[in-house]
Design brief:
seven-stranded parallel beta sheet; Rossmann fold; alpha/beta; 8 helices
Length: 255
């Protein structure tokens, strides 16, 4: 359907050389967007971009360190030179340097996580919004987490940063709505990626989650990608400031 078409749009997806980010990037390209694969390793980024091009899509690789503001500035400049205005900004890249008790987390590590998971998204938004304002059209999507909405053992610091992402899209939506720029978040449950391996690779930990999940399985990257493509498209033109939970019904079970 044309309402889901992203032809003529440029989508920047951070952390898109693997996992959820890669699935999102492929989905963006399949919908017609010029897609930017971004991460720290040029070879892995180029591999994904090449695969998209071989399938008939438009993609480029661009490396960046989300924790370094000058690196993000260079990233946006590179994309604008190659593809023009960034119409769709998808902030997926994140870090979790601590899997354990919230009370064992040190301040320096927490600041780094907040820089990577929250400040980087705000910086990229600040860099992309002027052009979006000029054309009166733009989409910002942050990949948050179910841990940003509910408490999870061993995910306290990460959850705090993801809660901040949810708040960030609410404030961006209020500030940017008059310019026809939408901002939304996705809050995945446990998805089978390397990043989330500590949550699903331990059978003792995974079994209760599976038992409490109405759909009876863990998430796959493709489960997230389709929802992101929907939010990026005109099908979601009246949706902003929202967080879409994708967790197989786990949160609905009351666990």
């Amino acid at each position: 359907m044309a309402v889901f078409c992203l032809d003529g749009k440029t989508a920047l997806v951070t952390g898109s050389s693997r996992g959820i980010g890669q699935a999102i990037a492929v989905s963006m390209a399949e919908a017609g967007a010029r897609t930017v694969i971004s991460g720290r390793n040029v070879d892995t980024c180029e591999s994904v971009a090449r695969s998209i091009r071989e399938d008939g899509g438009h993609a480029m690789a661009a490396t960046a360190d989300i924790g370094d503001e000058p690196s993000l500035e260079l990233l946006v400049q590179q994309v604008e030179r190659e593809f023009g205005t960034i119409d769709i900004l998808i902030c997926n890249a994140a870090s979790n340097s601590h899997f354990g008790s919230l009370l064992d987390f040190n301040a320096e590590a927490f600041r780094k996580m907040m820089d990577n998971n929250v400040a980087s998204a705000l910086t990229l938004a600040k860099l992309c919004v002027p052009a979006m304002k000029a054309q009166r059209d733009g989409v910002i999507i942050l990949i948050s987490s179910l841990a940003g909405l509910f408490g999870f053992r061993d995910l306290g610091p990460y959850g705090l940063s993801k809660a901040a992402d949810i708040s960030l899209v609410q404030h961006l939506a209020v500030e940017l709505g008059e310019h026809n720029i939408r901002a939304n978040a996705i809050a995945p449950g446990v998805v089978k990626t390397e990043f989330a391996r500590p949550m699903w690779d331990d059978r003792q930990r995974a079994a209760p989650m599976l038992a409490a999940t109405p759909l009876g399985r863990l998430g796959e990257p493709a489960d997230i990608a389709g929802a992101v493509t929907f939010l990026a498209s005109d099908a979601a033109s009246f949706i902003t400031g929202q967080t879409l939970v994708i967790d197989g019904g786990l949160s609905a079970s009351g666990v």
